[in-house]
Design goal:
By secondary structure, this protein is of the alpha+beta class. The chain has helices at about 1-20, 100, 105-115, 155, 295-315, 330-340, 360-365, 380-390, and strands spanning about 25-40, 55-65, 70-75, 75-85, 115-125, 130-140, 150, 165-170, 175-185, 190-195, 220-225, 230-245, 255-260, 270-275, 280-290, 290-295, 320, 320-325, 350-355, 370-375, 375-380, 395-400, 405-410, 415. This is PDZ domain-containing protein.
């Protein structure tokens, strides 16, 4: 009938009006115990005696605290009777005032750092059977967007006397796997850097200052014990400086961080972080349950500085003759402001200046070129090109110039 069709239409309209006219009220989609609807010009009669009389609708938007609403519509008005049915809060809506969300600071730290933690496996390629034989596994964390990873030296090296080619495999949190190479290693301090070549920029962790650590501070350890990736344990700093000699390491000159966070086989090389999400150590040694040790972040910083100084010395010996900048969104915006035709790129190396009579100039590289690949590998950071200059020759550079993709072969020169 016309009356029934009108009521059906108005019921839907009333639900919409209730949800839109009161946006600040707590509206939740629940099953209503009752919603009674009538249009005044058609007659409403007396208040319903039962919870859901004939014509009542049982599904809509429940408005907490409402029992009766009259909303004007044209020449008449809609009367809506809501009987609220108490149901648990929606699981999809966070109750920010609850202790679960106010005090779960450990979960906040883990959510922040987990994407930059990796699982590392060392294999031996068997020369006869052609299969990979596992030698060791552990964890690590990403230090640069271009794929530089920090870990323990004992995770990426083996004293196994078997012949064959050793191979490093790194798995990211998202499941992507890469073959890695060792960049620098110090077996005495048990620190190593390895390098992968990702196709896009990676999440990174920042180093904190271990000298600021205090006994009793909360810490979080994350890694891949027994190949169970991104396993989290928590604890406190038991001692900020425990001498290596106290642990029976006679030749050690290092003071370790002692923690009661549980560290097992496979956690080695993973980060120990503070509540700010900063790395304050590398998990490296377990004595017994509740007594574990980490290499302090200040020692990691020292290792990285020495490695960088060595690279700079080597870089001065080999050169291709360009000044360069890593492509970033801010650099692209800056360059497009002066040149609207600047190509659409998201990664690569911008050639700011080519030195006269240099290998790059003789090879055809020009100011303003964008080097996107070296020897077939995508470039994400300028350090990757520097590394290639030190270790490879010639260099096959893929260059974006305007809308053209060009290839140039450049041979680095050695400066005596």
């Amino acid at each position: 009938s016309i009356k029934k069709g009108t009521l059906e239409l108005l019921s839907l309209l009333s639900v919409f009006l209730l949800s839109s006219l009161r946006p600040s009220s707590p509206l939740h989609p629940f099953l209503l115990k009752c919603l009674t609807l009538c249009w005044l010009p058609l007659g409403c009669g007396s208040e319903p005696d039962s919870l859901c009389p004939t014509g009542a609708w049982g599904v809509g938007w429940a408005h907490a605290g409402f029992s009766l609403e009259t909303l004007p519509v044209g020449a008449g008005s809609i009367r809506v009777s809501l009987t609220h049915l108490a149901l648990p809060a929606s699981t999809g809506l966070r109750q920010l005032s609850s202790p679960r969300y106010k005090f779960n600071f450990i979960a906040d730290v883990v959510e922040k750092i987990a994407p930059a933690v990796v699982h590392i496996e060392l294999f031996l390629r068997h020369p006869l059977f052609g299969r990979n034989v596992p030698l060791s596994s552990g964890s690590g964390f990403i230090m640069s967007e271009a794929g530089l990873i920090i870990t323990n030296a004992h995770v990426v090296s083996s004293n196994n006397a078997a012949s064959g080619r050793q191979q490093l495999k790194v798995q990211l949190q998202n499941g992507d796997s890469y073959e890695a190479t060792i960049k620098d290693i110090d077996k005495k301090s048990d620190i190593a850097t390895i390098k992968i070549h990702p196709k896009k920029k990676l999440p990174v962790l920042l180093l904190g200052h271990s000298a600021d650590l205090r006994p009793g501070e909360f810490v979080v350890a994350i890694g891949s014990p027994f190949a169970l990736q991104n396993t989290v344990t928590t604890g406190i700093v038991s001692t900020a400086q425990r001498e290596g000699r106290e642990l029976g390491l006679r030749d050690s000159d290092m003071d370790y961080i002692q923690t009661d966070a549980i560290i097992n086989y496979g956690n080695s090389g993973g980060p120990l972080v503070n509540l700010d999400g900063e790395v304050i150590g590398i998990n490296t040694l377990k004595v017994t349950a509740g007594i574990s040790f980490a290499i302090p972040s200040d020692r990691i910083t020292q290792f990285l500085t020495e490695f960088q100084d060595k690279q700079i010395k080597d870089w001065k010996k080999r050169f291709i003759g360009i000044r360069m900048r890593t492509i970033t969104p801010s650099l692209v915006d800056e360059l497009k402001a002066s040149n609207p035709d600047f190509p659409e790129v998201s990664s690569g190396i911008y050639v700011q200046e080519v030195a006269p009579n240099s290998p790059s100039q003789r090879g055809g590289i020009q100011d303003g070129d964008i080097i996107v690949k070296v020897n077939g590998r995508p470039l994400v950071d300028s350090s990757e090109l520097q590394e290639a200059v030190l270790t490879e020759s010639p260099l096959l550079l893929e260059v974006r110039r305007g809308n053209d993709d060009l290839l140039f072969s450049i041979a680095p020169e050695v400066v005596m």
